[in-house]
């Protein structure tokens, strides 16, 4: 962060590798949660938190019980 470095990259050429790395990371989180009996909920940050939380809690009540 202290140095003024520039990195030249072609987004189209690294997109596939980035998406695969991201998918792998998310799969790892999902697997770890499931193996520890922790709910995993993928949320889109463009959704308001109150709506996302309500959707998750509704799902949890329906499928997990009270």
How would you characterize this protein structure?
This protein has 66 residues and is mostly helical. The chain has one domain. 62% of the residues lie in helices and 0% in strands. It is built from 2 helices and no strands. The radius of gyration is 18 Å and the shape is elongated. It starts with 10 loop residues before the first helix and ends with a helix. 0% of the residues are buried.
What ranges have pLDDT less than 50 throughout 5 or more consecutive residues?
Answer: none
Q: Which shape, going by the Cα principal axes? A: elongated
Terminal Cα separation, in Å? 48 Å
Q: What share of the residues lie within helices?
A: 55-70%
Structural class: mainly alpha
The proportion of residues in beta strands is under 5%
Rg from alpha-carbon coordinates: 18 Å
The tally of strands reads 0
Number of discrete domains: 1
Q: Tally the helices: what do you get?
A: 2
Helix and strand pattern: HH
Largest sheet: none
Average per-residue pLDDT, rounded, comes to 90
Topology:
Blueprint: H1 11-35, H2 49-64
Describe the structure in brief.
The protein is mainly α and 66 residues long.
């Amino acid at each position: 962060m202290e140095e003024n470095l520039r990195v030249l990259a072609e987004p189209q050429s690294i997109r596939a590798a980035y998406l695969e790395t991201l998918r792998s990371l998310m799969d790892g989180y999902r697997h770890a949660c499931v193996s520890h009996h922790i709910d995993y909920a993928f949320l889109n940050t463009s959704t308001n938190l109150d709506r996302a939380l309500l959707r998750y809690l509704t799902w949890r009540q329906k499928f997990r019980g009270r």
